[in-house]
Amino acid sequence: MTTHLTTSTEEAAEVLRRGELVAFPTETVYGLGADAFQPSAVRQIFEAKGRPSDNPLIVHLWNRDQIPQVAARIPASASRLLEHFVPGPLTLILPKHEDVPAVVTAGLDTVGVRLPRHPVARSFLRACATPVPAPSANRSGRPSPTSWEDVYEDLNGRIACILQGERTPEGVESTVVDCTSEPPIVLRPGAVTVESLREVLEEVEVATESEADASGRSPGTRHRHYAPSAQVSLVEDPSQAEPSSDAAFIGLDAPAAPEAFGRVLVVPNLEAYAHDLFHFFRACDGADVSVIYAQTVPGEGLGLALNDRLRRAAAR
Ligand code: TXA
Ligand code: MG
Questions:
Q1: I need a labelling partner for 133 at 20 to 30 A (CA). Which of 44, 181, 241, 254 fits?
Q2: Could you tell me the distance, in angstroms and rounded to a whole number, from the CA of residue 260 to the centre of ligand 1?
Q3: CB of residue 138 inside a 6 A radius of ligand 1
Q4: What is the structure's pLDDT at 302?
Q5: Alpha-carbon gap, residue 312 to 316, rounded angstroms
Q6: How confident is the model over 217-227, as pLDDT tens digits?
Q7: pLDDT in tens, 189-204
């Protein structure tokens, strides 16, 4: 299969409606979409990515009027979050509508729903005129793709089409909130901070990693994630990084002798860290780096999501 590249949302939507796979930009990372109501198309997503079939997909919509097509009901907590954060980088776990094929939700009776705010994503989803389940458009286990070139690197020849857009602005995935539990609980920290969720819903809780893993509520968190081929080693301070020409460093503080590393990225703030993290991981793989020292950050705001991705990338 040759992978077709296009900037036309109409053309990309036509490919999807034919039952084929289309990668598309969102404000977080690129997604790999299929038509929710063509189970054989959705099955191809798992094949193309090498994704374990027990890991449910997030369904993407362009308009909230579509929610009743995929969810059986909208709990009160979800309504409040919809009002304040949607469209945007937030995924709501809702009770599943019986018509949604089991392959989309990996057999769960809940469904993840997300309305991106990215204009290209919205115009594509609108043209698709069907709910679009889409995981991140990377080979399973690899860093999420923040450019169409990243998607091409991982999936060229395995998917029908890439809708080309700019680099994704957030760089880290959506926050996943389970609204079927009382109180609602954050299963995956992401681009919407827990502090801002709590301004709207004071009672929101955050699952510890082991809770999210053990409960089976967020099956995705069980699997290895976000890892470049280089080994990722977490440091609290740049002085803990061992300089060498095949080592790289990324963090908020500059190492004493940056020229002693093969590659260094010092970011000015958490937003820039999130924007550049996966991109940096992939650049290191292209440059024969064998170890990446990544500086952890204070666990507040976007720091919670960043530390989560860093820990998962380092675990192997
Ligand atoms: O920002 C994002 O969320 C990106 C873009 C493309 O929208 N998508 C994304 O999808 O990160 P993925 O498949 O890489 O991660 C989805 C996460 C997984 O951890 C999965 O287990 C969880 O959401 N999830 C999906 N449906 C779920 C459900 N019904 N219950 C619990 N967790 C669910
Ligand atoms: Mg992913």
A1: 181
A2: 39
A3: no
A4: 98
A5: 8
A6: 556 655 667 88
A7: 999 999 999 999 999 9
